[in-house]
Amino acid sequence: xxEILILYYSRYGATAEMARLIARGVEExxxxxxxxxxxxxxxxxxxxxxxxxxxAGAPYVSEADLRECSGLILGSPTRFGNMAAPLKYxxxxxxxxxxxxxxxxxxxxxxxxxxxxxGGQETTLLSMMLPLMHHGMLLLGVPYSETNLLHTSSGGxxxxxxxxxxxxxxxxxxxxxxxxxxxxxRRMAALAVRLAAT
Length: 198
Ligand SMILES: Cc1cc2nc3c(=O)[nH]c(=O)nc-3n(C[C@H](O)[C@H](O)[C@H](O)COP(=O)(O)O)c2cc1C
Known about the structure:
By secondary structure, the protein is an alpha/beta fold.
């Protein structure tokens, strides 16, 4: 069985909930296993402050997780229209993988959560794609054959799943947002299976 790595950062839980739905989509489709991983917080002082194992939730990602996965689905809350610093900080440590070309040709996809509807879902998703392109990954979106993209009045974009969490970050995922998450997971799993067979 091969693995799709779902790597996310989540401060208040919305992106983590999306990650779990995407994982369900991955495992609905095929023999693919969904591996959920997160990244530590970053600190303004230059010292390690986190335990090696998080107190709750997904384990921290390792370089081996990226090297071994058949596909990557990357999730972050929107922070000023961009991905959150802890995820960017982790990506900035992946230069060995970049130099060895370990991720070239692997499929990748992105998802995000915001407080406001026009607060930067698309800009975050597009900016998350940039380092993945430098790694030579193959980017996968969500086509409009997923008709919830046409009907959603909150999150959901062709660039990747998204969620409108509201000002207090507590809005639950809508049915449309949930379906788009699962479709993204299924689509990634199906592509990874096809690529593995070539
Ligand atoms: C520093 C900071 C910057 C943020 N910037 C934006 C933003 O640009 N647009 C937006 O809609 N929400 C913004 N938010 C809100 C988060 O994106 C939103 O609460 C998100 O759903 C949190 O996801 P999480 O529950 O996975 O942590 C920001 C939050 C923080 C703490």
